[in-house]
Amino acid sequence: SVMSLPLQVCAQLCRRPCYCPWVPPRCPRGSPLVLDGCGCCKICARRLGEPCDFLHVCDQSQGLICDYSTASAGTGATCNFEDDEEGCEVNGRVYRDGEVFQPSCKLQCRCLDGGFTCIPLCQEDVRLPTPDCPYPRRVEIPGKCCPEWICEAQDQHLLRDARAVSPVLPYPCQEWGTEWSACSATCGVGFATRVSNQNRYCRLETQRRLCMVRPCPILPAAFPA
User: Where in the cell is it found (predicted)?
Assistant: First the structure.
């Protein structure tokens, strides 16, 4: 009787011949077109955490199955990993727990307990004016991911400041800044970031500083010192 249950469901839900829309559906990013549970029409595969049933199948290419373990609680079946391993979804792609990935060239992230944490790969230091570079400016370089500091000529700098409302004075406007973010490392040395205009030209810049929540546990040495 257990083996005949899928056949009974198929007979009740699947009509023959197939009647499908002329235009296939437009799927969200990361959701491929697949055949429905009847093997009849193309539909958008359901992603991690989305509702599913016999007709609306999960994305098997991501290792997802229709999990009916919560169906008795009235929430219905949802797409989950076959081995019940936690994962996270970023930009339409599913990553396994503990997997390290780069959603862009500027970030490196790690999937952890259904969420993810990221650290920047580009330096976010603040370059102050110096005698050899009195007007530093960060610009995007074609072909490079991270912006770089350049030393702008004085005449270009004065021309741009002439169009500005505020004069070039130390802290010409009201000081403003966000709170420092949480430390990027749970143990050992990490860094915290904030956005602030507390600089010579009162411009919003991303600043960072070193931080340490607690020392990391000392692991036994693998090799003699």
Answer: Secreted
Cα dist from 99 to 62, 85, 114, 184, whole Å:
14, 12, 11, 17
Nearest 5°: the CA angle 170, 176, 179 is: 135
The CATH H-level superfamily of 176-215 is: Thrombospondin type-1 (TSP1) repeat (2.20.100.10)
- pTM, entire model: 0.38
Give me the residue spans of the domains in the chain.
Answer: 33-81, 85-150, 176-215
Average pLDDT over residues 172-201: 79
d(C-alpha 4, C-alpha 164), whole Å: 77
Higher pLDDT, 147 or 4: 147
**Three-state secondary structure readout of the chain:** CCCHHHHHHHHHHCCCCCCCCCCCCCCCCCCCEEECCCCCCEEECECCCCECCCCCCECHHHCEEEECCCHHHCCCCEEEECCCCCEEEECCEEEECCCEEEEECCEEEEEECCEEEEEECCCCCCCCCECCECCEEEECCCCCCCCEEEECCHHHHHHHHHCCCCCCCCCCCCCCECCCCCCCCCCCEEEEEEEECCCCCCCCEEEEEEEECCCCCCCCCCCCC
CB 110 within 8 A of CB 129: no
pLDDT of residue 167 exceeding 90, the answer is: no
Residue pointed to by tokens 């021309």: 159
Residue 202 CB neighbours (<10 A): 20
What is the pLDDT, as a whole number, of residue 45?
94
